[in-house]
Fold these 3 entries.
Entry 1:
Amino acid sequence: IPPGEYRFRVTGTNSNGFWSTNEASLKIRIITPFYNTGFAYFIYILFAAAIFYGILMIIRGKEVKKRLEEVSRLKDELLTVNLKLDIQTRMDMLTEVHNRKHFNEVFENLWDLYTRTGINFTILMLDIDYFKNYNDTYGHIAGDKCLKEVAGVILEAVSRKTDSVFRYGGEEFAVFLVDTDTAGARIVAERIRSKVMEKCIPNRSALNKTGILTVSIGIAGTKG
């Protein structure tokens, strides 16, 4: 029976079939269940709206997370590209050692460190002997290969992380040896010179009559 107010009416009859002229009645009120009330429906609407809003937030959250991940990925890619560009601006692409620009930066830093702390450093200036004659005799492709081999020899001879190798220009290279006096630098220089000769790179144009490629190395330091 739907909710509402009702009156239950009843009359009686005897065994002879005579009905009573009086009737009994009972007022009945059926209360609407809470789940069918207007307030309940209001709660249902709020609950449904909350679920719908939650779903939207989940979807939006996934989209935002996806966008943040994309931004993070692009940021990482940009940092990687910038790092590569930064390295390229400081590296000599042929010999894969530092370039003249970076030499100047490192020299300024080392000099500042020396003036503030007294930590000494030494510079080796290396020149490939008769390299112009080598290029004229064997060609520029062979000359580029020669520069790469010499750079590789220098990198092998200079093994400390605090030291650094540069292509200063043309066939000239430079090496910074940190916390090293000129006596120690001579040992490194001799190691480089002998290793280049051990390569036995042919150079029949050399005026020193050795027939192989050689290098000359100068040394300067903040401490003798």
Entry 2:
Amino acid sequence: LWWTANHDALTALPNRSLFADRFRKALERRVRSQKVVCLILVDVDKFKQVNDTFGHAAGDELLRKVSKQLSLCVRTHDTVARTGGDEFSILLEDIHNRSSLESVLDRIRASLDVRFQWEAHTVNVTLSAGAAIAPDHGRSPDDLTTAADLALYRIKRQPTAALAVYETEFGRAAHARNQLLAEARAAVAANRIVPFYQP
């Protein structure tokens, strides 16, 4: 019952609930050990396209393939979880310094191209990933998740598989974009902008 409640039935990976618990405990241990903790968010590019083209069974097989590929490129005490439909999260802990972190990140980067067979078809899919590091980019789960999400959003603009580590300029760009959207909404609400639509 515990396993069923804390794992994803399709991939057998930890689910969002178990991952959140491990993430919180890893950050608590980091305070005592002064080591580095890294959160990586991974997204399957064009997953809907695979589902629409080959069917949901192919989509399920792709998710299983991604889960195995990501699990093979991390260390045994790291955590790979399925935290959404086509979203995965990786927790790297007990890292002594940035150079040892880079070697793990390089292995993950090399695993972001996924190739699998479905019936008579060979399907090639790319993954996008965004990473945030504690304590450099935050000390709480929420701050690190926001930073990793910004890095993921930034890297998804690229047409190839890639992993981006959060930089402060990502946050500034997101803040400027949100500010612009807020100003535009306020202008429409105050009738300072009158939108007209044409076919």
Entry 3:
Amino acid sequence: IEYGAAGFTQGQGTTLTTTSTTSTITGLNPNTLYDVYVRSHCSATDISTWVATSFRTNCEVISTLPWTENFDTYTTATTAATGIQPYCWDYVMTGSATFQATSYRPQVYYSTTYATSGNYSLRLYGNSYTMLPEFTASIDSLQLEFWSRSTSTSYILTVGVMEDSVFVPVDTIDYTGTTASEYHIVYLNSYHGNGNRIAFRNTYTTATTYYSYHYIDDITVSYIPSCLPVQDITMDSVNKHLVVLDWSDL
């Protein structure tokens, strides 16, 4: 047996031998793609050809914050969707069978038009729950910052938490327009369940419509600061000499 990180040169990998048809490889790195080559060694002069396979190790729970993702570590030679779901993320499709195909699933998308920075963003197309990697921190101690762009006000994006297979909504994103990416921040301190996966829900205003475009980029998950900023500042009674400001606390 010879193995190593994907793309390694044979002869420079780590080797193992066994007299059975089973072998356990230990000491691997999480969320890493490996190539493995196996051959039979029947005698000093009778050796089979190599048979190759590959696998990716599971993801570890993220314990270091802030955590960021801009999807620009993914690459493609085309100008269309990559068809790749982000590593360590997960999703559940909720549309009809027609909209369960790979092209409708959440995937890294190549487009300088829809990416906020760089060339890649996360495209949500078919109705779905798209779950971020798992974090060790309690969900109610976290905030989620991201940029997103939609192509219609009929497309609805909701941030929430997955409790096993149940989505608990926390905040529905309000768009001021559909021609540019917009910044959003969601404080998750109002969530008091036992879920551990932050999630996006992608839906349409009509329940029987099973597609809804959103492009999400430049995600940051961090701890909620101890002193929160104000929100919803309004200006009333403006005249030549004064203005009355109103705002609300989070």
